[in-house]
Amino acid sequence: MSTNINPDNLPNLQELEQLANQFFKAGPSGIVNQFPVQQAAEAFQLPGNIPDTGLFNPGNVNAPASSIPSSTIGGSGVSPSAINQGNAINLKDPQTSFADPNLNAHSNSSAPAQHSPINAFGGQLPSQPNLGYDSYLVKTDLIPDVVLKQNFQVEQLSSAPENLLHLPYQQDQAFEVELNKILSNIHTSGPSNALPFTGEPAATEIPFYFLSNNHGLPAVKSDQEKIKQAGISNIISPPFDVNIIRRDFPILQEQVNGKPLVWLDNAATTQKPKQVIDRISYFYEHENSNIHRAAHELAARATDAYEGARQKVQTFLNAASINEIIFVRGATEAINLVAKSWGEQNLTAGDEIIVSHLEHHANIVPWQQLAAKKGLKIKVIPVDDDGQIILDEYVKLLGPKTKLVSFTQVSNALGTVTPAAQIVHLAHLAGAKVLVDGAQSVSHMPVNVQALNADWFVFSGHKVFGPTGIGVIYGKEDLLNQTQPWQGGGNMIKDVTFEYTQYHDAPSRFEAGTGNIADAVGLGAAIDYVSRLGMPAIAQYEHYLLVYATQLLKEVKGLRLIGTAADKASVLSFVLDGYKTEEVGAALNQQGIAVRSGHHCAQPILRRFGVESTVRPSLAFYNTCAEIDLLVNTLHHLKR
After folding, report:
1. Which of 285, 306, 414, 608 could lock onto 387 through a cystine, CB 3.0 to 4.6 A?
2. How far apart are CA 176 and CA 178, in angstroms?
3. For residue 548, what is the DSSP state?
4. Which positions are catalytic?
5. DSSP string covering 117-161
6. pTM to 2 decimal places
7. Distance from C-alpha of 263 to C-alpha of 249, rounded to nearest angstrom
């Protein structure tokens, strides 16, 4: 079979149609005629009623097999409407739909979408109400196949009947293992020059992205103009469909003052996907117990879930050992833990601590308290007029008395991304320990603590789409085991008499008492979610939004951006002539737009720029260009 491509780089639809039919005929006998999921599952030796792991919202898994969306089998099957009661599949038929999460409403096809709404991972969802404004974006039509293959993990399924009784969340293994077993039994036939069936989705009357050079559907003209206006060049399709992802976040359908909620307060806290909400609910419904030592079933489930979350954090940060991950209430508690354990134990009068001018109060006050108690000196790394660390000045501060350098990887007030690896390396050359505050970085960029080589790295769960009241401190294992515990109590001891106490090694030695078990499990679910999207993909998309928003904000008369570093994460602090920041925040709130207005617990850096407060929109991967347009238009209206 030839593979002629027409001048518009479109494949021959008749040939693709024949290939698709050839593929389904090559499957187990009768699979097409018997496509309802229960029969298809039996043919593939998979359980028909796939249990809901809660990790990708597959819809009503207890519904009759014929009503289960085909996306529950690998996410790449054909919807029942595509079968047309026979073996033939018509690619020109608008009813034909490959159930794949990467197909969205941004195609240039004139035919309306016929498949049910799906979330970012292939689960069926209810239709989203009209938000009342354009939901166009800097184009995120597709999640690249490589991202899906690297990050899409759900509970491994087995054909053994007894495994159907297993509870969700008890295993987190790659679905590809089972999928590969299935695909290995399918052999297509045909001429050697025929296009291989790659498992990629097809679409009707639109370019086939898996045959194009840019691997993505072209952005519509209006978005191309906006991208050009923002000064972004050479953009291939951004990495995922934001409109599908938004359906995973129930609160984004909320109304505020009669307007759709526009959540631009992500630096303060991020919203939670349904997968996280459901995971916490499931814990309390099926696993709730204290952890460790108990002999009953629920304790075993709770312990597995809690320690499983610790392992997910280890993988997320690329820590060398699970023993280097300690659960705390958040980044603030983590910094206080280091100050009141390692700091109390190792620092003496005359020693010096270096922080940067960018720091959140949580990375200033604990060191001030320790300095006042022990006679220490605090030095501050200055920043330039753009809000960037001045490395030359930092080098001058280092010396033989420097014992600790503690700094943020991303400024919560300005969005500045600091040269973290260089700061850590220079501190170690001076013989100092280093703590990195990652509260604002973990949701915006990949973090590799081994490559960073910091001695401690801290972050809060609620900043990375997880629950409040849970956070993490990573510490090098040897250093943790040499450090005296901060708090005493249960869980952290090996042996206690009235004369002495022997402590566990890390992480138990720093987790006295009953921890926040359920929210640690919820944090694990949040890490699953962002890992499947892929942190590089998230960083890329948010960068598009940041550039787009920055260009439009610069056009608002009387608006002054605070923090214009070349390397920034998704924070846009500003002041507006003639208005107090709280007045701007109130006006935006009337349009349903949530931003932070105040000093952001970072007064020193704002005063460095001559202000006491700013308005701070901050972005996440579920935000869109439409929301930025609404923000900017409201500011223009204020000035008029």
Report:
1. 414
2. 5
3. H
4. 601
5. PB-TTS-B-PPPPP-SS----S------HHHHHHH-------S-G
6. 0.67
7. 11
